[in-house]
Amino acid sequence: MIDQFVIPLLKIVVVLNATLLGVTYMVLLERKVIAWAQSRLGPMRVGPYGILQPIADAVKLVIKEDITPVRADKWVFTAAPIISMVPALIVYAVIPFGPTIHLFGRPVSLYIADVNVGLLYIVSVASVGVYGIILAGYASNSKYPLLASLRASAQLISYEVAVTLTLVSVILMARSLSMVSIVNAQYNAGVWFAFVQPVAFVIFFIGGLAETNRAPFDLPEAEQELTGGFHTEYSGMRFALFFLAEYANMIVVSSVATTLFFGGWLRPFPNVAALHVLDVIPSWMWFLIKSFVFLYIFIWVRATLPRYRYDQLMRIGWKLLIPLAIANLVVTGIVKVLIA
Amino acid sequence: MGQAIAFYTLAAFILGFAVLVVSTKDTVHSVLFLVLDFLFVAALYVLLGAPFLAAIQVLVYAGGIVVLYLFVVMLVNLKRPPEAHQDPHRRTKLGFGLAVAVLLELGAIATYGMTRTGSPLVVPGTNGPLPGNTEQVGWLLYTSYLIPFEIASMLLLVAMIGAIVLAKREL
Looking at the domain assignment, is residue B85 inside a domain? Predict the structure, then answer.
């Protein structure tokens, strides 16, 4: 009874709350890091060094007036933010934050579920998230959001292909689709897959930037051309849901990159006994540290690189990343066969 | 018992959404009901113990093909209903014929399914069934169903080249 219902429910509560809190603080981190990159201070007023800013932002967004345009398609307009938010959250079900540990004399696995199609589950749930963006643009019944949502969905569909192909080469290395088995495969191989599959990792990361609509691929939100993007007509909490979904997706991409390419919860050099001192940091901390590095790189890239033009974006996706990913897959397959 | 309840609940949702797909006036809404329908079919696959098929169903149908439907519906002007044909009952007759054909097919599958029981797939050269769903699908695709699989791939390739030729007049 306890193992079947209570513990999974507790895990879901913890993961969801941690994610939402993490998302609000991601926003603060982003504002701070970009401010530092531009020799500013960033938010400083609410709390010491502005650390209570996310809470103030949340309160502001909740009490703001919620506007639905008169000509909007009401049902779809309401459903769109929810459709973007839900996939971004349910992906966390299969992300392993750590191995099975003993807590109060009871084995507790630090993941909600280990399904044997874990990676495929993530890809398929993420593919449903596109609807939120398309429908937001369509239901607003307004020109700029519609243009932005068409841009966004074309971008997402294009980069999904490249990202999924890189995942296939990781699956070939790990011989499994389960996230936990992929981490264990890296333990057995004694090396993080980023060093065996560098090309796949680079393509995955670029694709991840594009799939989360982040700079330099943030064309769907190009303020100068589109007055804000697909969520122009949204206000208050509904706008906040799109915002939360975007940041939750960034955390998903960072966690998946950590799990697939950087050994998940494993410490560096997991097989070298001489480095056992590193075990003072618990496994889930390693996972969080690695994911945090990726989140920082997301912000760093945004502060550094200018936005691409739309045709450049499509050219990178179709003429560079997809052929490279296919070539990488073929080479991986040939090498696997030759070694085996 | 629990399985039966889950099955009938899912089946009711699937049928309900299917009816909404064809009965809704707004084309975009109808496409959205189709997505919901596909998601519930995926849940049915999970219930049948086929998680791989469920994930593929969501990825390919709900997440891929219907996005393209949505593009078409949003970009093509569908305000005017298509021209009525000479014979107003032509569509009704056609629909009736197709429905009868599908019913016959379902009946045939049901009676055929009653006569044989499923056994776990055993791979020659190893002992015991394959460990997972994904492995079984992969094994079947590359052994027993290799030729149909290759034909389907060829068909998709032909469709892709056809689409490129249609979209780019001067290559």
Answer: no
Task: Tell me whether residues B134 and A153 touch, CB distance under 8 A.
Answer: no
What's the structural domain count of chain B?
Answer: 2
Q: Which of A115, A126, A134 sits opposite B70 (nearest CB)?
A: A134
Q: What is the CA radius of gyration of chain B?
A: 21
Q: Is the pLDDT of residue B11 over 80?
A: yes
Using the structure block, give the residue that is written with the tokens 């051309």.
A225
Q: Which residues of B touch A314 (CB under 8 A)?
A: none
B39, B62, B74 member nearest A138 (Cβ)? B74
Interchain pair B63, A75: CB under 8 A: no
The model's pTM: 0.85
Residue B9: predicted pLDDT: 92
Q: Residue B35: inside a domain, yes or no?
A: yes
Do the Cβ atoms of A130 and B58 come within 8 Å?
no
- On whether any CB of chain B is under 8 Å from the CB of A182, the answer is no
Is the pLDDT confidence value at B17 over 90? yes
Confidence band of B121 (pLDDT split at 50, 70, 90): low
- Of the listed ranges A273-277, A329-333, B3-7, the least confidently predicted one is A273-277
Note whether residue B58 is domain-resident.
yes
Question: Does residue A76 belong to the interface with chain B, where contact is any CB pair within 8 Å?
Answer: yes
Task: Residue B31: give the domain boundaries.
Answer: 2-75
Is A135 in contact with B71 (CB distance < 8 Å)? Answer: no
Provide the pLDDT confidence category of residue B79 given band limits of 50, 70 and 90. Answer: low
Please, which pLDDT band fits residue B129 given cuts at 50, 70 and 90? low
Measuring CA to CA, which residue among A48, A47, A19 is closest to residue A250? A19
Q: Name the domain boundary from B75, B100, B125.
A: B75
- Answer yes or no: is B132 within a domain: yes
pLDDT score, position A331: 92
User: A307 CA to chain B: closest CA distance, Å?
Assistant: 25
Nearest to A264 by CA among A285, A281, A295, A249: A285
For residues B22 and B41, what is the distance between their CA atoms, to the nearest angstrom? 17
Rounded distance between C-alpha atoms, residue A271 and residue A268, angstroms: 9
Residues of A in contact with B64 (CB under 8 A): 127, 157
